[in-house]
Structures
1.
Amino acid sequence: MTMTNVPSGKRRRVKVPDVMEILGPIYGPVDRTPRYNAAQELVYTILSQHTSDVNSTRAYDSLMAMFESLDSIAAASPSAIEDAIRQGGLAAQKSVRIKTILNQVKAEVGSYDLSFLAEMPLDEAKAWLKRLPGVGPKTAAIILCFALGMPAMPVDTHVHRVSVRLGLIGRKVSADKAHDILEAKVPPDDVLPFHMYLIWHGRQVCKAQRPRCGECALAWGCPARAGFEKAAGRTKTGAGRPSQRKTKKEASNG
Ligand code: SF4
């Protein structure tokens, strides 16, 4: 991906349609097939909190291998669940949370079938999930978006960082508040691909520490680019490092 993607004649900021139009061909089509049903996705998402995808997948697979069904997990002791999910980190906290949530869902719904959420208005479906312990805006959006195909925007660290840098949300907008703001800007059908494109872009190009602005197809309209390039220039030349700056007196002495 290079600066050759600069749209001709554009001297403006990147907007949501630009993200779709430019990053779509770069990262390709997004698979919309659900990996789990909604209740399984809920368990997986709890396991994925504060750990990597690799660890949460290992923990989920281990949990399902040990108990085989959500009913068995709900009936198990927290310590048995904890043993099964140890690889995912924070196992003591997550085991209690998973057991509590599954029992609450079963008591309220009569099963683990959460497909009724897809019939609700988006705000109501989110509110229903957010009542569950440990379920915040991101977890609720992941379940609704990935498992039920609803236009809920999960905002993780990459989506938040890239959106702020591109000026799609304000610098002071928290990730929790960004869900609703981005959902209002992105057409419903584009929510999942937009989410994935910003994650991939954040991992590969707009990295947290050293964004690769020189390789970024959105650099033409990114308000953060100049600041990063200036900082990179300072680092290269050493300008700004007190030890390498000469005082007026030193300079006049050569
Ligand atoms: S130009 Fe730089 S800061 Fe802006 S989106 Fe691209 S990589 Fe990120």
2.
Amino acid sequence: MEWLARYEELIAYLLGLLGVAGGQPPVPAPILYMVPLVALLLLFLSIRLAARSWASRKKRAVSETAPQPAAERGGEAAAAAASEAGVAVEAAPLSVLERMRAGLAKTRGAFAGRLDELLGSGRGESLWEDLEELLIGADIGMKTALELRQSVQQRCDREQSREPALLRRALMEEIEARLRCCQAPLDFGAAAPFVLMVIGVNGVGKTTTIGKLAWQLARQEGKKVLVGACDTFRAAAAEQLGVWAQRAGAEFVGQGPGADPAGVAFDAVKAALARRSDVVILDTAGRLHTKVNLMEEVKKIRRVVGREIPGAPHETLLVLDATLGQNSLVQARLFKEAVDVSGLVLTKLDGTARGGMAVAVGTELGIPVRYVGIGEKVEDLRPFDPHSFAQALFERP
Ligand SMILES: Nc1nc2c(ncn2[C@@H]2O[C@H](COP(=O)(O)OP(=O)(O)OP(=O)(O)O)[C@@H](O)[C@H]2O)c(=O)[nH]1
Ligand SMILES: [Mg+2]
């Protein structure tokens, strides 16, 4: 065959170039068959190599432009989630104590500064009266101020010393001991759904507290949260709660302005049961549009909720504005008389020098302080921790 003779001549020529044979046919048959096989093999290998290098180049390009996977992002993920929620988050998160210190800066300025002055002046007999006055000035409350003064005085007498360091330490320990009496964190696992009702006069920070709490429970603890807008007084109230719910990733139940608050509460607990929510938080009005007394309205909501879920509300949280000082104590007494308040939240501690009132509300009312609000950011609602609170009150900058 013509093409076979030509093929043999070509192979013979190539072999001749390589110096393997004389460059003329005949070429042994095995070599004739092996040459195309080797050529095919080389072609296959070079295609594979080219394909591999193209794939790795593409992968590099993708990894340079794509965002990091969530698992590798660590702390950034929380910041991203927060900024997505439209909530400001600081670049370097502060520790609990640092935030508490920053939140209580005004109180500490007024309290610790004056205490240093008092201890530095080396006063004689008037020392104890001055100390009591200072404590009253810090809104610790008359009764608690007197008790604190007596305990510290007894301790100093026992140790026969009035050293400023001893006095400071004794005072800090006595305050912490009193704060400890009213510490009891909420256990949201105690019921399912856990129904929490938030009450308080207008403007104290109920809705903001609910927003922060819903954010922490849903985003940080992965709980299924539902909020009910039982404040039907202002049209904007439900809207405000709706925005917080969206930020928090919580479900929202509400009706139009002027609707019956107890009706909204009924809808909220029904929805929570149907959707298997972990926590239901009910916002209430601080003021009413009807002639119904605020306390009566709160009682009605409690009754309705309790009919649907025995034992609910599992927590009735009274929100108090720390900037109102002793007035908050008066409010708290009125609420306590009318409804079964089971916990307190002290808000706006960051905006006042009256942080000492935490000591007064806790000890004088005998109701645990569950949370403190030390700013407007979501992370500024803190479970109440007597140690860091007392430390933040006394620590020098
Ligand atoms: N600085 C500071 N501001 C706070 C804190 N908590 C709440 N606020 C502010 O207090 C104002 C009132 O808060 P709301 O949550 O609307 O109060 P509310 O009790 O729901 O008020 P009504 O719905 O009118 O009864 C808002 O401007 C909040 O941002 C806090 O811990 N620190
Ligand atoms: Mg509100």
